[in-house]
Every structure is written in C-alpha cells, then in structure tokens.
Design goal:
With 238 residues, this protein is an alpha/beta fold. Helix content is 35%, strand content 24%. The protein folds into 2 domains: 128 residues, Rossmann fold, CATH 3.40.50.620; 96 residues, putative n-type atp pyrophosphatase, domain 2 (Alpha-Beta Complex), CATH 3.90.1490.10. The strands form 2 sheets. The chain has a 5-stranded parallel β-sheet, with helices on both faces. Strands 7-6-9-8 form a 4-stranded antiparallel β-sheet. About 3% of the residues have low confidence.
C-alpha cells in the first residue's frame, strides 16, 4: 500500500473491527490511532452497543483512542437511509481530516464484510482524503473468517441480538465453535448471517493476541421478547 505514514483503525471493540486491526498489525501497518464513533440508538453506518468499552480495549491494545460523536442526525436533515448514512459519515470524515492534517495519514482500516452501504461510503471518504483503505474482511467467507478469529485466540461475546431465532439465551454467550454450529442452523432456518452482518447480533472482543489484558464484564440483560442487549454494570481489565 502506498505511503509510509501512520494509519487509523476504525474501531468499535466488536469482532470485525478488531479483526481488521489485528490483521493490519500482523501486516506491519503502523496503526497509531484507534477511532470509535459513538452513534445514537440506531445506526446504518456503525456498531451501536457497548462502544463506551472501546476505551478499555484501546488501553489493553496499547494504541491511543480517538472518540467521535455521530451527532444529532435528525438535526442534520437525515430523511432516509442514504441521507442518514451520509450524515453519520460527516463527523468521522471531519475528525479524520484533522488527524490527517496533524499526522499525514496513509490510511484507515475497516471491518466491513458485505455491506456496500458502509464500504462504498468509506471508500469514497478515503478517496476524498487521498488515503488508503485496508478492509481485510471484505467479501471473505463468513465461516472462514469466524474460524480464523477463533483460531487466532479471539474471545468474543454476544452483547446484542435482534433476529428471528436469536433469543435471550444468546445474550452474553461466547461466540465459539458451538455457537457457530448453532448459527449455521439458524442461517438455514431464518437466514441469520454467521457474522451478524445484517445486524442480527453485535459482539465485544474481550481478549485476543493483540491485547495485553482481557476485559471482564458484569452485566444484566434486557429482553423485550424479540430483541435484547447486555446492560453492562461493570467493566475492567484483568
């Protein structure tokens, strides 16, 4: 990839952005900042739950974290999915432009797997900023990706579910080989994506080879009959 300047890893603490960061570090890319966007309750562009734990993950990883608020999308005039996606991207692009002015960035990493909606916008943003995009999960086989994450030593916990077939018992469940087998069954029955790419579930990486210390969480669960999430009471590094 062109340029020898620093990289920024778009980061939520979830499995996909964490895997993109891990692969970038494996490749020797000089990632000098992690950047998390804190969206509202619903987002077309970003991982929503537990982004406040990204600071703990960053501390364990040992890379400084930059935090961005996605802002009030209604005030930004977002009237449909495309407009909301564009509005959500604006504060991210503005912060990256500031970082580029300070650091002369070479690129960003992103954890998108199949979403043209997200990836197309990030690609166009990188073109405007004249920086590279490293997206190592893009168009990869979901089962292969999940197996690679587990083989590398990622410990992944499900923190939110919102799909047919995913009930309250999935909240807090580790995403391990048994969970993958169950997800394959749910994929056949309901079309649940193995990596939750359609928003079926969201995750938090609590440990991995790129982290010095694991994240321990204490939580309650919130379940409304069709969807639910973890309510984190306490989180700390081990």
């Amino acid at each position: 990839m062109a340029g020898a300047g620093p990289w920024v890893s778009l980061f939520s603490g979830g499995k996909d952005s964490s895997w993109a960061l891990y692969r970038a570090l494996e490749r020797g890319l000089p990632v000098e900042r992690l950047l998390v966007v804190h969206p509202g309750e619903d987002s077309y562009m970003y991982h929503v739950p537990a982004t406040d734990l990204a600071s703990l993950a960053a501390e364990s990883i040992g890379i400084p974290l930059v935090e961005v608020d996605s802002g009030d999308l209604d005030a930004a005039g977002a009237t449909d999915a495309g407009a909301q996606g564009d509005a959500e991207l604006e504060p991210l692009e503005a912060r990256l432009r500031e970082l580029d002015d300070d650091l002369e960035l070479s690129g960003v990493t992103a954890g998108a797997v199949e979403s043209e909606f997200q990836t197309g916008r990030i690609e166009r943003m990188c073109d405007r900023l004249e920086i590279d995009l490293f997206a190592p999960l893009w168009r990869r086989d979901p089962r292969t990706l999940a197996e690679e994450m587990l083989a590398a030593g990622f410990e992944i916990r499900i923190v939110q579910v919102a799909a047919a077939g995913l009930d309250e018992s999935w909240l807090g469940r580790p995403l391990d080989a048994d969970a993958l087998a169950d997800l394959e069954t749910l994929n056949d029955e309901y079309g649940v994506h193995l990596l939750g790419e359609g928003g079926e579930f969201e995750t938090l990486v609590t440990d991995g080879p790129h982290m010095d210390r694991p994240i321990h969480i204490d939580y309650d669960t919130e379940w409304d009959g069709t969807r639910g999430r973890l309510l984190i009471r306490d989180a700390r590094l081990g």
